[in-house]
Amino acid sequence: MGLHTLRLATVPLTFTTSRLFLNPSPTLAFFSRHVQPRKPSFLLRAFSNSTAVQDTPLTQTSSDSSAARTQWKAAIDFKWIRDNKEAVEINIKNRNSNADLEAVLQLYENMVTLQKEVEGIREERNNVAKKMKGKLEPSERERLVEEGKNLKESLVTLEEDLMKLQDELQHVARSIPNMTHPDVPVGGEDSSAIRNEVGSPREFSFPIKDHLQLGKDLDLMDFDSAAEVSGSKFFYLKNEAVLLEMALLNWTLSEVMKKGFTPLTTPEIVRSSIVEKCGFQPRGDNTQVYSIDGTDQCLIGTAEIPVGGIHMDSILLESALPLKYIAFSHCFRTEAGAAGAAAKGLYRVHQFSKAEMFVLCRPEDSESFHNELIQIEEDLFTSLGLHFKTLDMATADLGAPAYRKFDIEAWMPGLGRFGEISSASNCTDYQSRRLGIRFRPSEPLQTGSKKGKANLPSTKFVHTLNATACAVPRMMVCLLENYQQEDGSVVVPETLRPFMGGIEVIKPKLR
Amino acid sequence: MGLHTLRLATVPLTFSTFTSRLFLKPIPPNTLQTLGQFSRHVQPRKPFLVRAFSASAAVQETPPTQASDSSAARPQWKASIDFKWIRDNKEAVEINIKNRNSNADLGGVIELYENMVNLQKEVEGIREERNNVAKKMKGKLEPSERERLVEEGKSLKESLVTLEEDLVKLQDELQQVARSIPNMTHPDVPIGGEDSSAIRKEVGSPREFTFPIRDHLQLGKDLDLIDFDSASEVSGSKFFYLKNEAVLLEMALLNWTLSEVMKKGFTPLTTPEIVRSSIVEKCGFQPRGDNTQVYSIDGTDQCLIGTAEIPVGGIHMDSILLESALPLKYIAFSHCFRTEAGAAGAATKGLYRVHQFSKAEMFILCRPEDSETCHDELIQIEEDLFTSLGLHFKTLDMATADLGAPAYRKFDIEAWMPGLGRFGEISSASNCTDYQSRRLGIRYRPSEPVQTGSKKGKASLPATKFVHTLNATACAVPRMMVCLLENYQQEDGSVVIPEPLRPFMGGIELIKPKLR
């Protein structure tokens, strides 16, 4: 508890209470449901799902009593939400979100009312000031001075209230999830629709090993030493596994660069506000995010976060869009609450290498880029000879930022089932409204202004999309398990061989 | 201060400040001196990344903050320090401490050790007395005599409990104080400060430029290779994104380095980058304190590695290796994270000193008699790599005051950096002899059965020995990039890729300015 208190004390983002406001502690029940999904399933999904901003962490209401301000503002379109109340309500329900729309609307109406009140008083004050410019009876002047003073006092109080109200509105409204693509199936994970299926499960004529056994027999991984040195779910890669990781990343980068993506390496330590702006929850008991002691920084769980941040608070030229990145980084996840059989071996680990695609584009292009991203993923996994299916994930399985999400699940013989290997999300303007990434359309608007000159067209928020190109450990699970031979060796898929110095087979070592 | 208190509270390893008749003052008399020394160490005159890490973060003193915690927590682990050897070689150790500019308190260590030995004897004496009493009580006795013996046994037991507690505390304190004693030093190492370091070798000559040169930061901007500005918004200063060909260059450097070093029989590894803080300590780095170079994870006893030396050192922790398995030679790739607390100055510009970078690190575990040869092999590999890349560099045998606590001897390589207009450190190769293995508990059992002199007449297993460990940078990517970009720049603003790297970059020969 000591730790916790301290963490709050160093972090300005806290909840405020005031007479105007709603009950500041929403929904105990939802919290635990969201952080422990019924199927404790997939790494990438778990990350986007459970850590997405879907609720206000309970802890924020409890201990800190100082009314600190929010660190940053999401440009949420409250007017649109109010005007589309029914659609938003249905969306929240479909997505199994615990966002409190009523509270948001009420706070928003309160804020609008208060804003009007503040404006009214400002006007009155101006009137008083205007009156005082003329010649006046001393008694009248004194009355006006008194009135002005009173008005000023009210104004100070009301402006303070307004600021608090705005902060609270921000806080509560952030839990509202993105809207959903009309074609997304409504329901839980079982409702997800299969978009595509490639290949068929390999038939083995011999008893198979899982990747953990193969890794041990071929001297490719060391989980035992890592458990001593670091903790459980850490690992060393050894020998050909190191080369395989590099080959996977090199090959992926070179393939994706052919599609016009700019390669990047990224910082792996970022300010926690960036994590929040991307729609993840960096704090709380069940956070997936490692925090750095004594700072407001944390470790990234995916390169989506630092790449999302590159163009933060900027206005891009329309001609510069789309910006397409392929970013390599290490990723760090606490995997709090993860348990079960799928937690074995490389399937769910605290640290791994990943190449992630990220696109910033005009709103009208995001759907076609979403299709491009899933196509790239499918092409990559097909080249590696995997058996997989692509899913259009159902509403309840979307993280808050995603408008639509396509997952790819590949056949993992050791698990005896499909396991998630990638995820491609269209986040439309959910992240860009938080990160402040806009563009200015090139075409001047048809001018309707009285001044008769062409105005600069107003800025719009870009759409952002992210998609896994290669999450190394899960790819290794697939490759080792699917390409194992009866003699215990593993064949390296042809596409990767040029990136591994021509190695064709990983053979048991002579000791 | 709140943070600090908390950190101490969650971390069991603290200085035991209990006082007892036998012990030294818990705040060593040289604390103030220590403070002065500390700040000198964290702000080396020539701030070199790799060296700064090993020098300033190495366990050279007990952080003064630890003295403030009043609970007497136990150290988490024990270093197998050879106190008898230290006592028997007091003069040599004293001179070594002085030469290395260490603030280790040898007098304190020896006094604590003598106290401990005396106390041990006392405890043994009382145990014997108690046994005697117990023996006497087995026979038939007068009731009064029995009662006297019962009483005597009881009071002996009480003394024993007290003394044993004292002994444990004393041992803990001895551990804590003795850990600051640096490794001994190779007799050929020049004595003195950094200026005394000896040049072992010099390769190439500085390139003559016929045009005004740019530094790597400018080249990185002009060629759209590096983005520090966005990184400072997203992460903080001294973080960066690599873009475009720089990403490929990083991968090429690492791929090429790995493939070259693997040819020499090194096993490739990737490592965890989050480790328990005890492993950091055992490798001779200081994971806590105001000026630590180490990032800690909130709410755990884990931290981020500053070098792959740490997780590789930990692989064989607490184990006994077969002599036939030695030497174990690893080439490990990892990202490295450093707070760079206290770093400042011109050399902190651009990629020279950053919070996060990629590195391939060599690590060897070998028999004591082989470590000097292995050290020569490591520096040879480094020199071969940098020669292949066409760098102008010199190899230094680092002087005593410039060695981190774990190093018995350290060879640094400094390469010519035209943008800085001077040599800058690009690698470091240290022989740590048994300093780390005594902390990590890595031994081996010699294969040859020992000539038996035992009375039982059968061949006994030979006693285990501590391995020697060595570590050496194969490729610290950002500093290599500084060298490559600055040395291979052309008048038209492009940068030539050295030939060995081209096959690892899809055949790219030149990084050209982008068309926009």
From TrEMBL, chain A:
Coiled-coil region:
104-175
Which Enzyme Commission numbers does its entry carry? 6.1.1.11
User: Could you identify this protein by its name?
Assistant: serine--tRNA ligase
Where does the Aminoacyl-transfer RNA synthetases class-II family profile domain start and stop, copy by copy? 258-493
* SUPFAM superfamilies, alphabetized: Class II aaRS and biotin synthetases (SSF55681), tRNA-binding arm (SSF46589)
Which organism does this sequence originate in? Brassica napus (Rape)
Instruction: Supply the CDD domains for this chain.
Output: SerRS_core
UniProt KW keywords: Aminoacyl-tRNA synthetase, ATP-binding, Coiled coil, Ligase, Nucleotide-binding, Protein biosynthesis
Top-level EC class: ligase
